[in-house]
User: Which sequence fits this backbone?
C-alpha cells in the first residue's frame, strides 16, 4: 500500500525531504517507523516520538490503510 | 470566545488583547514568549519555528477549550509564530480575560504550559558560534 | 529596572510593555485590572479611585523591589489609576519580564496581590441603582 | 501641639474635609484617633485602620510631635 509520510524538524533534515510517498507492507505505525528509521538512519527512537495518522495523534499500533497520511513527531519545542 | 492561530507574520498583540475585552471581565493576564539571546549557556543569534500546521491548529484549539472548561474565563486566545525570528521577537502570545484574577492567572499558565508540551511546533536555534540545531527536549511524550 | 506610578491619566500599556524589553528576557507576563460591570451581585456604573499619593508611591516601589529580590526578573513595573473610571477602563497594570516564565508568572501575581493588600488606594463604586460607596474590605490589616 | 491630619475615602466623607489642623494633647497616634473618632463619629474602629506619620506607616503607639502630619488609612481597595 502507498502511504504519504510527513517529516518535521530533525527528522526532515535526516530524511532530506519534508514528505515522501512510501510503498510498504507495515502493519501499523510502529512497524512503519522502524522501516523508515532503518532506511533514513533516524537517531530518535520511537519512544521519544509521537505519531499522527490523517492529521490526528494516533497510537503506535494503529493499523495503516492505503492512501493514509502519516507523520512522525519529534519532541516538540514551541513556546 | 477562544481562538488559536499559527502565524507566519509578526503577532499583533494589541488586536488580540482588544478581542479579550468585556464589561464582565475584571482581570486580564497575558504571557509573551520572547526570543532570548541565550539558551542553556549558548549565545543565540536567532530562531526558526516549524509547525505541523493542521495538527498544531487542532491541538491548540483543544488546549484553549480545556482552559475554558477548567477555569471561569470570559475569553482566551493564543497565537504561535512560525518562520524566522530575531532576538526580542514574540514567539508566542497567550491572553485570557476573566471575572477574577485567580482564574486569569491559572488559565494563562495552563495554556502556555500545555502549548509547550503538546502542540507540534519545533524550534531551530542558530548560535553566535555559527552552529544551529533543532531543539527536541528530552521528556517522556504524553 | 522597576518602576511604580500613580496616574490620573489613562494607562499607556504599550509604552510600559516596551520598557520591559530585553534580549536577556524570554518571558513577559502582564496583569490588567479592568472596571467590571458588577461587584458582589450589584450592577456597577463606574468607579473612582483615590490615593494617599506619597505613601502609595513609596509602598508601590517597595512591592516592586520585593518582587525583584524574590524572583529572577529582568524588569518590573506597575501603574495604578486615580480619578473617575468607566466600565472597561484599566484600573491597574502590572508587567514583568524574566528569563523564564516561572519567575514571570510568580512575580506578576505577587505584585498585584501585594498592591491590593498594602498600597493606600481606595475605590468608590457607583451603582446602576444610583447608590455609591467606598469599598473597605473586611480583612485584618497587616 | 498642632497636628495636620489627612482623611481618605469614607473617613474623608465622615470628617467633611480632606485635611485639618488639630490642636491636641494626645500622646500617640492611637489616642489621637480616639479623640477624632469621637469628634467626627467615624464608624471604623482603629483595629481596621492603619496609621501613617509623616508619610510612612507607623504603629499606633508612635508618639506625636508638634507639626507632624498624620493619616488614618481605612482598609485599602486598589487593584
Assistant:
Amino acid at each position: 500500500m502507498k502511504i504519504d509520510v510527513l517529516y518535521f524538524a530533525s527528522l526532515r533534515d535526516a530524511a532530506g525531504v519534508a514528505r515522501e510517498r512510501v510503498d510498504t507492507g507495515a502493519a501499523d505505525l510502529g512497524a512503519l517507523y522502524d522501516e523508515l528509521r532503518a532506511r533514513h538512519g533516524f537517531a530518535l527512537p520511537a519512544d521519544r516520538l509521537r505519531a499522527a495518522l490523517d492529521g490526528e495523534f494516533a497510537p503506535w499500533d494503529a493499523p495503516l490503510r492505503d492512501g493514509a497520511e502519516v507523520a512522525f513527531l519529534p519532541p516538540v519545542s514551541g513556546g | 470566545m477562544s481562538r488559536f492561530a499559527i502565524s507566519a507574520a509578526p503577532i499583533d498583540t494589541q488586536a488580540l488583547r482588544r478581542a479579550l475585552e468585556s464589561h464582565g471581565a475584571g482581570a486580564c493576564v497575558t504571557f509573551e514568549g520572547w526570543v532570548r539571546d541565550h539558551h542553556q549557556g549558548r549565545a543565540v543569534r536567532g530562531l526558526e519555528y516549524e509547525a505541523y500546521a493542521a495538527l498544531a491548529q487542532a491541538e491548540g484549539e483543544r488546549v484553549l477549550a480545556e482552559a475554558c472548561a477548567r477555569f471561569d474565563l470570559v475569553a482566551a486566545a493564543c497565537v504561535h509564530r512560525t518562520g524566522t525570528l530575531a532576538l526580542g521577537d514574540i514567539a508566542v502570545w497567550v491572553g485570557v480575560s476573566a471575572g477574577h484574577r485567580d482564574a486569569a492567572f491559572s488559565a494563562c499558565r495552563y495554556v502556555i504550559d500545555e502549548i509547550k508540551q503538546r502542540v507540534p511546533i519545533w524550534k531551530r536555534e542558530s548560535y553566535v558560534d555559527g552552529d544551529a540545531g533543532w531543539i527536541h527536549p528530552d521528556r517522556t511524550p504524553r
About this structure: Residues 124 and 133 of chain C are 5 Å apart (CA to CA).
